[in-house]
Amino acid sequence: MLYLRAALFLASLTLAAAGGACGQVPSMAPSLTPSPPSPCSAFVDGAVVTLSAADFGYWSLDQFLALATDSPTSLTIVSTGPGTFALHDDVPNYFGVLIDDTSAFTNIITIFDDASMHVTSFTCVDVGDNRVALRDINGNFVRPCPSCVPENDTMTPYLACTPPVHGQPTPAHAWTLGVPTL
To answer: What is the pTM of this model?
Structure first.
């Protein structure tokens, strides 16, 4: 009797594995499709990209402060360490975070002449839909910020590093990654 129960049990397992269809063999191939590569994989030494914010435009430069404009600026990636990089324009001006507690411009993105400075290093966070967020050395994220410059009477969206919400970048921190056209 025990032998009969074991045989029935094995037969039911076989049918369940076959999907209950007689004579069909279950596929052993994985059914998962590979996910597309992260846009963060584009941030390699020497790569040239553009970054645009949905409501404000492209990452650009206005003399000494970074801002968002309608004109795309080509940004070249410079590796600064494992998983970190600096961005520079054609001059090259390296973009970095102004960290000065005595300045009203603290956390504003400005220019530096050296990619090896810790304030010019960023890391990339994939936020989906070919968009990225750029994290600075303090864990804040770059975003267009019209009200971040005290003397900004034109409400130009200068770029600033603002804190994440619950440890995550917000939609305001999202940049669409592009490749400049020549």
So the answer is: 0.76
Positions of E strands within the chain: 48-53, 57-62, 65-69, 75-81, 84-88, 94-97, 109-112, 123-128, 131-135, 141-145, 158-162, 175-178
Mean pLDDT value of segment 122-131: 95
Q: What share of the chain is helix, strand, coil (3-state, %, to 5)?
A: 15, 35, 50
- Over residues 56-80, the mean pLDDT reads 87
Topology at the third CATH level for domain 40-178: Trefoil (Acidic Fibroblast Growth Factor, subunit A) (2.80.10)
pLDDT one-digit tens code per residue, 170-179: 999 999 999 8
Task: Report phi then psi at 151, rounded to 5.
Answer: -90, 15
Q: 89-110 b/e with 16+ CB inside 10 Å = b?
A: beeebbbbbbeeeeeebebbbb
With vertex at residue 177, the alpha carbon angle to CA 173 and CA 178, rounded to the nearest 5 degrees, is: 145
Confidence bin at 14 (pLDDT 50/70/90): low
Of 102 and 46, more confident? 46
Domain ranges in the chain?
40-178
96 closest CA partner among 60, 71, 121, 130: 121
- C-alpha span between 170 and 133 (Å, rounded): 9
